[in-house]
Specification:
Layout (H helix, E strand, L loop, with lengths): L2 H20 L10 H14 L4 H7 L6 H12 L10 H14 L3 H5 L7 H18 L7 H23 L9 H6 L5 H6 L2 E3 L5 E3 L19 H10 L4 H11 L7 H4 L7 H8 L14 H15 L4
Antiparallel strand pairs: 1-2
The structure holds a DNA duplex.
DNA sequence: AAAAAAGGCAACCGCGATTGC
DNA sequence: CGCAATCGCGGTTGCCTTTTT
């Protein structure tokens, strides 16, 4: 053991010793309202920092660490509660693709969100989908799925929300499933055919249905299966089409982003969007998952 | 209606980095 | 400069709630 290691070990032992000493009636587990109140009151008059002594002086039977965590993740006035918004989801996906599990760094770009919250979001929502798609969350396949399908769809939804409407792409499976609908009808409804025979939404000129109407699109797994069988939707083309239509939002901006000033594009998007939390739109609904599976199939076939 | 499984999230732990004496 | 104390991060755990069987 070198000197540094020995020093760290001693340091650690001292810390453990101090904790053991204090553990004589140290509380653990969920915080009570009374404890919260005491901590808030103490910080209101004395400020934060020096957490160990703060814990003692405030009369809290908690470790400094515990107090700090409770304050930063829950009691701070600027902590934002509630569902992660679409814009936040988009930002998390992009920043994670850039920095990996640097939660605190990612959290810096999401005011009011804590690293813990973002980490939980990633682990519960994003990793869940990777698991369902039977691929590793760090695999290129999953990254491609996010980049070419998930994120463009989020942008799409953010834009749609900003105009008080949603994209028809959510309904593409429904319409394209119906063989009775010919090309003219599809075009009339705002879809465009591409040379491969796939149907993609034409976002440029279509009047779209309100969010609440999305349920009319029969986004059940059964519809998804039909679409899958007929191979009518090409996620890559659909996504690329969308990316092309929204180059000002996505192309280049993320890749060059280094600091807060580079997030201007995002602030612009944010500014025109009502800041609502909408669990209905969150990634994770049946239709989204079906699209992800479609994309996975394309990847598996090696045509990506 | 009850039990089991899964989901979601707050809180804890270990460790390296930083600070201040 | 060395060392102890403290901070902060990322990983993990455990408990409560919700969903499924």
């Amino acid at each position: 053991m070198d000197d540094k290691a020995r020093s760290l070990k001693i340091n650690k032992n001292m810390e453990d010793f101090a904790n053991v000493e204090e553990e004589i009636d140290l509380r653990r587990g969920p915080w009570t309202i009374e404890e919260d109140f005491e901590l808030i009151n103490y910080i209101a008059t004395h400020g934060e920092g020096r957490w160990n002594s703060l814990a003692r002086c405030a009369g809290l039977k908690r470790t400094g660490k515990s107090c700090r965590l409770r304050w930063l993740n829950y009691l701070r006035p600027d902590v934002r509660r509630g569902n992660i918004t679409l814009e936040e989801q988009l930002l998390i996906l992009e920043l994670h693709s850039r920095w990996g599990n640097r939660w605190s760094k990612i959290a810096q770009y999401l005011p009011g969100r804590t690293d813990n919250e973002i980490k939980n979001y990633w682990r519960t929502r994003v990793q869940k989908h990777a698991k369902q798609l039977k691929c590793d969350v760090n695999s290129q396949q999953f990254k491609d799925t996010m980049k070419y399908l998930w994120m463009p769809r989020l942008v799409e939804r953010i834009q749609a929300a900003s105009t008080g409407s949603v994209s028809t792409s959510s309904c593409v499976t429904n319409y394209s499933d119906q063989s009775l609908i010919n090309n003219n009808t599809m075009e009339h409804l705002g879809f465009i055919s591409n040379p491969n025979g796939y149907i993609t939404p034409d976002n440029s000129n279509v009047a779209v249905s309100p969010a609440s109407d999305l349920t009319d699109c029969h986004m059940s797994s059964e519809v998804g299966k039909i679409g899958q069988d007929q191979n009518l939707v090409d996620p890559q083309i659909s996504s690329q089409n969308y990316l092309d239509n929204n180059s000002g939002l996505l192309n280049g901006d993320f890749t060059k982003m280094q600091d807060q000033s580079d997030l201007n594009w995002f602030e612009n998007v944010n500014g025109m969007i009502p800041n609502y939390s909408d669990s209905f739109w969150n990634i994770g609904n049946d239709e989204d998952f079906w699209l992800l599976q479609q994309h996975q199939q394309v990847l598996d076939n090696g045509s990506f």
